Amino acid sequence: MNRKELVARTSDAMSQLFPEIIRGVQLEFIGKENITNSQFIVLMAVFSERNPSMGRLASMLGVSMPTVTGIVGRLVARRLIERIADADDRRKIFVSLTRKGVGVVETFKGIARHRWTEMLKVLENEEIEKFYQVVRSMSSKIGSRKG
Fold first, then answer.
1. In order of start, what are the domains of the chain with their CATH numbers?
2. How far out from the chain centre does Cα 58 lie?
3. Which candidate, 108, 61, 55, 56, places its Cα nearest to that of 80?
4. Could you read off the pLDDT of 83-92 as tens digits, one per residue?
5. What's the pLDDT score for residue 1?
6. DSSP helix/strand/coil, 34
């Protein structure tokens, strides 16, 4: 099997597995934190992007500025994120997680860890070790591309 076929087959297998992971994590998290799907997506985007501008956030999510402004406003009201004006251009606004927002993201990560723990129980030890090595390799390579 060539690389393209192997990547396609692996991608297909992962796309079958991930809804099982996500469904449990997202439903438990959203119920626990009383947060909407839109707020969850914005919160995770702010976490992963590390202080994006409002314009960048809207672009990343494929929504209009008024839409992202509304969602951000609700997250600010809940003290999960804060708006920060650019020192040189007060019209440019960045968003950042607050300490409470970081706590909410950590709660999400804990729920995800628990869900993965449950899913990995079906594997043998050597399968888990191989999976771990692949995950670490991907994390390292993806992380080096972002930097």
1. 3-121 (1.10.10.10)
2. 16
3. 108
4. 999 888 888 9
5. 83
6. coil
